[in-house]
Design brief:
About 20% of the residues lie in helices and about 35% in strands. With about 300 residues, it is of the alpha+beta class. The strands form 3 sheets. Strands 3, 6, 7, 8, 9, 10, 11, 12 and 13 form a 9-stranded mixed beta sheet that branches. It has a two-stranded antiparallel ribbon with strand order 1-2. A two-stranded antiparallel sheet has the order 4-5. The structure holds zinc ion (2 copies).
Length: about 300
């Protein structure tokens, strides 16, 4: 049974996770629990085919979770696919993870590493550099508008084996006669080419949140999954947690189309020559596995009408 809130052993007020010290810290008296030693033994790749086969029995429905605040007693109805957020009435950190009916829950998370004040100052500097924003937006009170959100992402590992049929084009040059003498003309000799390429994919990221700007997602880079630790309630306290909007099956299709781009350029490299034509590529996937992870974002949803700024 996971706890809905964490209370301070000294004064009883609610506690939140502090990225600076990686401890739960009391909002009222400043008491800090022992430093978190994060485990990462549950952050394993899970068998994708097995899950995809059984996914129809799984509950992947969007959820609207409710929880009553142990601190003030207030009834909180969270927005759809929000698992943790602050109490509407007393602002205590609340999680409703224990009420989720979803079968696939995050195995791991990448803990917040940048404290809010640092995030704020970086964000302020960035805001000033955005010429297209009205001055009013730049002067907003950031303490209220910037919030820490854990957003879900799928990661995929697999090996691809592709058989291709195409043509290889090699340039050659001929001398042709013209009225004024001769000139050199480039021609291409095409020959049939076929073969196979094998690629290993590690941690293809597919973001599972619809609340995030796709361009920002792409700029994040692929280093995050390696920093993941086991999902734990303490690290969530004081932040929002979203559950996935993009389902596993759809995410896998996206991962395959990402892989396809790399496979095709690998096929071109394998064909060689100056130009390549690809007629068919047949790809089989093996060693398929996936993870569901939470990744930290400092989000400024209120300022940009749904656009988020990330660290
Ligand atoms: Zn306290
Ligand atoms: Zn409350």
């Amino acid at each position: 049974m996971t706890e809905i809130t964490k209370n301070c052993p000294c004064c009883g007020a609610t506690m939140a996770f502090d990225p600076k010290t990686t401890t739960l810290t009391c909002n009222a008296c400043g008491f800090q629990c022992n430093q978190q030693e994060f485990d990462s033994q549950n952050v394993n790749e899970l068998d994708l085919l097995h899950t995809l086969k059984e996914i129809e029995q799984y509950n992947e429905d969007d959820e609207s979770l409710s929880v009553s605040c142990p601190n003030c007693g207030g009834q909180n109805d969270f927005p759809v696919n929000i698992v943790a957020t602050a109490c509407t009435y007393c602002k205590s950190p609340l999680t409703a993870a224990q009420n989720s009916k979803r079968t696939l829950r995050p195995q791991g998370l990448v803990p917040f590493a940048i404290p809010k004040d640092k995030a704020q100052s970086t964000f302020k500097t960035w805001l000033k550099s955005q010429w297209f924003l009205p001055n009013k937006a730049k002067k907003l009170n950031l303490r209220d508008s910037l919030k820490g959100v854990y957003r879900p992402t799928w990661t995929f590992d697999f090996t691809s084996q592709s058989f291709y049929v195409g043509e290889r084009g090699d340039y050659y040059y001929v001398t042709v006669k013209t009225k004024n003498g001769t000139r050199t003309e480039r021609k291409t000799r095409w020959r049939g080419a076929s073969g196979s390429v094998r690629l290993d994919f590690d941690d293809i990221l597919v973001y599972a949140s619809n609340r995030l700007d796709r361009k920002l997602q792409e700029s994040l880079g692929g280093f995050m999954p390696k920093q993941a630790v086991d999902y734990n309630n303490d690290a969530i306290m004081g932040f929002d947690e979203e559950s996935y909007d993009v389902k596993l099956t759809d995410a896998f299709e996206e991962a395959k189309s990402f892989a396809d781009d790399r496979i095709r350029s690998e096929v071109r490299r394998d064909i060689g020559g100056d130009e390549q034509r690809i007629f068919t590529v047949n790809t089989a996937y093996s060693d398929l596995s996936y993870k569901l992870l939470l990744i930290p974002f400092w989000s400024s949803t209120y300022i940009f009408k749904g656009k988020s700024y990330t660290y």
